């Protein structure tokens, strides 16, 4: 069982800011990164699902890493999403991210082609061998169509640079068993499971909701670490109305986060409508007011 937190505890799956015309907004990205770190994030995960990686170019991904690295300095972790459906492309993005100054790589399971487990394992090993950076595997079968099976994860844990998992499989029992039997650091990618996963030995979370309320999301883990599990549960419950609206009400988390931040999405995503924005804003304001 791992007690390591290779990228910290509280990580934000950061949005990728765009201008109204759809261009990458590096100034806004740097400002957002600084704010997130100042309000409690140990690290930032770029170009993941929330970061709209399918619609950003390779050059934009590298520019985003460089801009965020320059903005936050050497302390906070900067993890670059490099996963694609193509192993060669993923290796190239991993090498690019290392050159741009990333501290780690987020590598999603190859999607659409639905490779069998032996091919999934070979893909991750090839990417892990491509650079000296530590790797966080991204297990999100609801989007990729392929789960990283527990047996595959156990074998992959033997690679010295495969150190963590962003867990969106929503199988707490399987995750608990892998945490207990391997050195992998497990990060919750489903906000409603942040506290349960942490309680069974998880390392922390990679959160979309942290784009808008980084302090309250972190406070749950802080309370748990102090041994006050009742307070951790109480604080966690206070975040759930906003978590539910942002992550489980029919709109992608990217859309809901950007609705609250006043940012712009790239097609095929569309902005939230007025009714959704009003509901999100009301839940956000209720949480913030109850916290102060």
Give me the secondary-structure topology.
Layout: E1 10-13, H1 26-38, E2 43-46, H2 58-72, E3 77-81, H3 87-100, E4 104-108, H4 117-130, E5 135-139, H5 141-144, H6 150-156, E6 162-167, H7 172-181, E7 185-188, H8 194-199, E8 204-207, H9 214-225, H10 229-247, H11 253-261, H12 274-291
Parallel strand pairs: 1-2, 1-8, 2-3, 3-4, 4-5, 5-6, 6-7, 7-8
Mean pLDDT across all residues, rounded?
97
> Structural class, from secondary structure content?
alpha/beta
Topology as a string of helices (H) and strands (E): EHEHEHEHEHHEHEHEHHHH
Secondary structure tally: strands: 8
Task: List low-confidence stretches.
Answer: none
Number of helices: 12
Strand order of the largest sheet: 1-2-3-4-5-6-7-8
Task: Describe the fold and architecture.
With 292 residues, the protein is of the alpha/beta class. Helix content is 48%, strand content 13%. It is built from twelve helices and eight strands. The protein has an eight-stranded parallel barrel with strand order 1-2-3-4-5-6-7-8, surrounded by five helices. The longest helix has 19 residues. The termini are far apart.
Summarize the model shown.
The chain is α/β, with parallel strands linked by helices and 292 residues long.
Structural descriptors:
eight-stranded parallel beta barrel; alpha/beta; single chain; 292 residues; 8 strands; 13% strand
